[in-house]
């Protein structure tokens, strides 16, 4: 070695300085290993309250007309009057159209005249029957007279036959009485034939009466039909509703039962709203419907006030493609707030749950073990609480278990939380905005001073 003393000094310096360097490094590592306190997480909370919550099913629906009537003419003719304007509301029984009645009025008069003739024929047949019955009575009287004469002539014949046998009278005289008896017998036979003839004539008059009565009935039917056809010249509205645009103008010829209707009437008072619910809710809906009528609310866009109605129809078939069941509610619609084809939000109210524990729905989170909320404890730290939700109504949820009245749950800021995390409670934005909207007392006084 050329410089042994210098090398020894360097070695001593290095060995002396090494512990000091290690000590400084260890102190720095110890200071960095200490945990710094985490800052409080700002959150919005809401209390658990006890209130009455309705049990509802929400859906969307389509408004449908209560009925749609296509008005057609039952007869052909010229349209001479139209009693409405396009799009007008009409009442049941209002005159819509009038068709020229003159051809049908003429047919009615012809039918009435033919009926008068039928009536005269019936009267004639009845008179003939009366005359025939009189002739029968006369023929019977004649027969009775001839029978009496025959009895007397037969008595004389027998008497004179006895006298002739004793030789008291001549043969000529006896033959005369025999002839008288034969003539009387012939008269009796003729009277019987006359009775038969008059009876046959009477039976004929009965047939004439029956035919005349049939003609009379047929004539009455023709008159009724002519009146009905005449009534078709005036067409009245069968329902309350709103008419469409007119398809045929006044003065045109219309056909009986044409393919195209003259006008269409849509009944909108009352009116239907058709909507669907999941098939799992079907049993619940039927259960509550048995207890009482179920109220239904329909909300139109940009209108906060609902239209009130009630459930009137539950379909018996489940749609296999969507897993839903179709329901229908009826609304009075007296104020014309909904119209056919309109889409609405629907709330079906099943019942009300009394004294339900309620929290905002946005406070509820879903984890591996199910639904839970963050509950703020007295020391402003949070804990995870598993809950069971009984029902959700809009932005509120009814809690079946897991919470108590007065506890506070986090409704905003959950994603930055962990168990036992420190929180700083802040007001909701809507509350802050409300405060901003309200002027301070000093500002109000300042405005008054300026005025």
From TrEMBL:
The family annotation for this protein states: Belongs to the membrane fusion protein (MFP) (TC 8.A.1) family.
Q: What is this protein called?
A: Efflux RND transporter periplasmic adaptor subunit
Q: Which NCBIfam families does the UniProt entry name for this protein?
A: RND_mfp
Q: Does the keyword Transport apply?
A: yes
Principal subcellular localization: membrane
Compartment(s) of residence: Cell membrane
Question: InterPro entries annotated for this entry?
Answer: MdtA-like_b-barrel (IPR058626), MdtA-like_BSH (IPR058625), MdtA-like_C (IPR058627), RND_pump_MFP (IPR006143)
Query: Which classification does the entry list for the species?
Result: Bacteria, Bacillati, Cyanobacteriota, Cyanophyceae, Pseudanabaenales
| UniProt-listed PANTHER family | BLL3903 PROTEIN, MULTIDRUG RESISTANCE PROTEIN MDTA
- List the residue ranges of the region (Disordered): 423-451
* Keywords recorded for this protein, A-Z: Coiled coil, Signal, Transport
Show the coiled coil region(s): 113-142
